[in-house]
# Entry
Amino acid sequence: MDGASTAPATEFDHGPARRPASGRQPGPDGAVETLPRTARRLARGLWPWRSAILGAVACFFVAAALEPLVPALLKYLLDHGFDGQAPFPLWLVPLVVVGIFVVRGAASFGGAYLFAWATSKAVLDLRRRLVGAIMQADAALYTVLSPGVATARVINEPQNAFGALTQAITTLLRDGIGFVVLLGYLFWLDWMLTLVALAVVPLVTVVMRRIHRRVVDVGGRTYASQVRLTGIIDDIARAWRVVRTFDAQQFEQRRFDEEAARLRAGTVESVAAGAMLSPLTQVTASVGVALILTLALWQARRGAATVGEFVAFITALLMTSTPLRRLTDVTQPIVGALIQARACFELLDTPPEPDDGTLDLGRAHGAIELRALRVVHAGAERPALHDVDLRVRAGETVALVGPSGAGKTTLVNALLGFIEPEAGMLCLDGHDLRTLRKAALRRQFAVVSQDIVLFDDSIEANVAYALPPDPSRIAACLEAARLAEFVAGLPEGARTRVGTNGNRLSGGQRQRLAIARALYKDAPVWIFDEATSALDSESERGIQAALERQRGARTLLLIAHRLSTIRRADRIHVLVDGRLVESGDHESLMGRGGRYAAMVRAQSMD
# Structure
């Protein structure tokens, strides 16, 4: 079975395009993720492990085939075993009875195990694909998908969906096949009575269909409430400092309580809708049972049936009630599983980040050029960058300054390919960035932003992130980032874990660790976006000294509000309202007495 563990690339592929249904958004292939479509995609996800599934089905068939042996054995014993002249030894009876149940139990276990093995493989593959979809998704996804919801979507929902589906399908196979076999045995015993039993099937079908629609509607609303509640908990855990600083515990508690109450009401309503199915089905079926008992007794009184035949028929009929009850209870878990799987597939169908470039650039020299660059954010009234022309020579140290919202970070995001310009061109070493593969482009940049992101791993793993670790290089980068003394004082040194997003470190230590990571990457272009904002003056001077040693060897783009950090830049560009208004070195800009000089004087007064 392990040989089938490598799944083909299309196992969760898109189905045929369909017309959009009410309330659902079409995916990238134009199809709407309806529950039937979700079921087909789940089936395709299980297809690579069909050998295990077929083995499970075979086991369930064996278990089901043994079901009629119990009433058949009773019929034989009643007709031939109580007249004092039984044609079989008594010691054979317990062996046969126990043997039937042992074989049936073993077959049932084998079917359940094989099916669980196959679905666990499908869960693993779906999780891999979901993580890949999140990492490759267009940047717009991260404006609507919170980390908590993303975590639940990848970790919990594939397991919940396939887990519930596994139990439901196991029930359908084990009890469904058993029900069909018992039904065949009933026809063999007395086809007339069996037809009477089947007369109530249309009525049961109508009841099930009505309740099924109710379960789908309530289940969808309950799932949406659960997603909202996950987002609230994610906000509380992620922004706990803000919550406490604003004394907002009661506000957040009230927000949580309201959504939790909606989820509870929806859950109760969903359970009630599902629980209604079994008793209504049983009450409807009892009409047929009553008729059958009456007719069977009438036949027995007329001598048309033996006691053994009557007991065998009634026993087999009663044995159909248990699988029938279980079969009527599978609707709710199947619908719940499909709703959660549908959410996974909608995330899987998120449009990936566009990457139309074909050029795989080697190590760049670091020359950057912007030609009439224009960037407009969705929904914005004015451009974030308006016809910006800018040239940076390889090895040059360039600073971008300006008030908040001037377009500095937008320019950096455009350089990294996170934003698609509306007009104009960006070039790296003379190559239009649109011709470069995104991965090839981003290999040329090492970025340290004011929004520090660290990983819950060791210090050395954060420094050498996604690159082969070199202890000597790691130590040199920690030294250059003025973090070596702190690390040396830790009990585990560079192997010390930093916690979630570096929460075991101070703000300055987190920033210095991010700088060490950028230094380790050794890219031809370094971007420092407010990279020293959380550092004290001494540490900032140390980082500046490290950057000075890289002058000429790297292209350095410095973004800073503290203008003292960029005085020695080869060229300073001033952005205001998305426009480039001034360019020059520190002395020439001060001599002009323009926007830059005014900003320097204002900071000097402060």
Q: What stands out?
A: The first strand starts at residue 368 and ends at 375. The beta strands are 368-375, 385-392, 397-401, 423-428, 431-432, 445-448, 525-529, 555-559, 571-576, 579-584. The chain has two domains: 2-348, 396-419+433-605. The longest helix spans residues 249-301.
